[in-house]
Automatic annotation (TrEMBL):
Belongs to the DedA family. GO terms for cellular component: plasma membrane. InterPro entries: DedA_domain, VTT_dom. This is Alkaline phosphatase-like protein. It comes from Paenibacillus polymyxa. Pfam families: VTT_dom (PF09335).
Amino acid sequence: MGQILAWILEYGYLAMFGLLALGVAGMPIPDEVLMIAFGGLVSQGHYNFIAALAVTFFGSMTGMMLSYTLGRLLGKPLLHRYGKWVRLTPSRIASSENWFGRYGTWGILFGYFVPGLRHVSSYLAGTTRLGVFRYIGYASAGALLWCGTFLGIGHAVGMHWEQVAKLMEKVTHRVGLIVILLIVLGGITAWFWNKRKKNIT
């Protein structure tokens, strides 16, 4: 992680773009920890928040589009044969296929918050020949939500981002599931609220 931070401090936005693109595509890069660290650096005045959000969004989308294109062109055999080289074990691939089969395009949106799943969901979207514009719609919504969430966490904790980043390395899966739960609960609450307003009027 120290070397990664050194690259970010030296090469700035360009390093962040490249690291996130590779991380989301499946390379062994701690994406969430990286985002929190970047958010912390933003809070210290090293970078601009809007620029950081744009760079991380396009970096993550580049990784997602790369995975989608490979899945569309090469299919599942490549995933099962070489997945182990990018942290994709057979059990992780199987659980991701189950998730994608159950939730489909929603799995792309919320899959960002589950390490391993976001690395596979785009590839599976490609293998199932999901329409490219439909895929981009869900993937971009997920990317914006994911980048904004973890950049925001880093920015909010400010000078304490290093401690939070270390904690995140241990509880990433739990935090991702909590965020998904909050999003779902927020959506249900908004739906009931709108329905109640319509009934009143």
